[in-house]
Amino acid sequence: MLEARAAVKSLHPYRPPLAGRQGLRLDFNESTVGCSPHVLARLRSLDAEALARYPERKPVEAEVACFLGLDAPQVLLTNGVDEAIHLLCSTYIEPGDDAIIVVPTFAMYAICAQGEGARLVQVPSNENFAFPLEDLLSRINQRTRLIALANPNNPTGTAVPCDILLRVAQAAPHAAVLVDEAYFEFHGQTILHHTAGSANLFVARTFSKAYGLAGLRIGILTGDAAQMAMVRRVASPYNVNAVALALLPEALRDQEYVERYVSEVQRGRELLQQELGVLGLRYWPSRANFVLVRVGPAYAEFIQAMRTRGILVRDRHTDAACDGCVRLTVGSLEHTQTLIVALREMVGELREHREVKI
Questions:
Q1: Spatial distance between the Cα atoms of 169 and 198, rounded to a whole number of angstroms
Q2: CA-based nearest residue to 231, from 84, 334, 30
Q3: 269: which residues sit within 8 A by CB, 6+ positions away?
Q4: CA angle, 161 then 108 then 336, to 5°
């Protein structure tokens, strides 16, 4: 009888709660205002011929490389950052190799690495989710083939200075070190142009967050040109669809739109964090477009109360060291004000019930 590989059978599937997402979507860190009007105009201009042809990725990769200040061989467009992670694992991991992650973090690092038969090495964050540099360095050995780090991290929103990330890459020259910068725009700092001398360092970006293109599933993987040539060997030549390739240049050209939205998110993030402090809710200062909040034992009631008010938030209580935690996406200022009003009402109501501690 046909059976899946043992590594696949032992995986815990990642099933994001996508069903029934009606209301203000502050649960998946998507843009709350959507993409640039110029992107929509380009979408409407596509004809049947554009959809009938196989997509050609190379010209758009050249545009993206120019935008990033890189050479075209250093850039690979991917079907979201998820595919970038998968490609790195397929390129560098052999069964029995070690893959290191710092937890809590994005679930797909573990899933992709374990799917290739890697042994997962989970390094717990330090107090207040501080980066555990010394603990991580102590876990590197000759079997280490992948180190995946989100910066800023999801779900904590914490960020690591570039010099620390470079120390990690230099300590494991035989391993692919991925720095996932999915939330780069909201942080404003990148390791992308500090990679000289670290041929094992890869950087991933996405257009799902600040650009409002989550539905197109398009991301970027960058790295040393010689290493990227190896990654391309396992990538499909048609991994990014024609619609995404047609729209991405328009999204890149309208930086004014992106910068305006990012500015609103950054202002809203500060307002939200101030309000959480006033309400007496524990939170961790964020460099991303979300804030992690410790609600405590009432986290389920909190989530349901927000849904009743038409606002979706993300349950993170099962993540490492995140007991009782909920993640709140920060969107436009208008949407952040809506969230703050709901928080004030809801926290007050829950605290009136003595059996619910918040």
A1: 7
A2: 84
A3: 186, 286, 289, 291, 330, 336
A4: 65
Helix (H) / strand (E) containing 279: helix 255-279
- Cα(158)–Cα(166) distance, integer angstroms: 17
Closest by Cα among 130, 128, 131, 81 to 107: 81
* Tokens 């349950």, residue located: 315
Burial class (CB in 10 A: 0-12, 13-18, 19+), 94: exposed
Give me the helices (H) in 23-125, please: 37-45, 48-52, 58-68, 80-92, 107-115
What is the distance between the alpha carbons of residues 37 and 353, in angstroms, rounded to a whole number?
A: 46
- Give residue-wise pLDDT tens across range 117-148: 999 999 999 999 999 999 999 999 999 999 99
Range of the structural domain that residue 179 is part of: 37-253
Of 214, 229, 253, the residue at which a domain comes to its end is 253
Q: Is residue 75 part of a domain?
A: yes
Q: What CATH number is attached to the domain comprising 274? A: 3.90.1150.10
Over residues 181-217, the pLDDT tens digits come to 999 999 999 999 988 889 999 999 999 999 999 999 9
| Pairing label, strands 282-284, 325-329 | unpaired
Rounded Cα–Cα distance for residues 114 and 89 (Å): 9
Query: pLDDT-based confidence at 358, cuts 50/70/90?
Result: low
Distance separating alpha carbons of residues 226 and 46, to the nearest angstrom? 35
**Rounded CA gap, 160 and 149, in Å?**
9
Ramachandran angles phi, psi of 37, nearest 5°: -60, -30
DSSP conformation class of 295: -
Which positions ≥6 away from 70 have C-beta within 8 Å? 192, 222
Single residue among 253, 279, 303 that ends a domain in this structure: 253
Over residues 90-109, the mean pLDDT reads 98
Q: For the whole prediction, is pTM greater than 0.90? A: yes
Q: How many Å apart are CA 333 and CA 32, to the nearest integer?
A: 10
Q: In terms of domains, do 196 and 285 share one? A: no
User: Same domain for 291 and 200?
Assistant: no
Indicate whether 273 and 337 sit together in one domain: yes
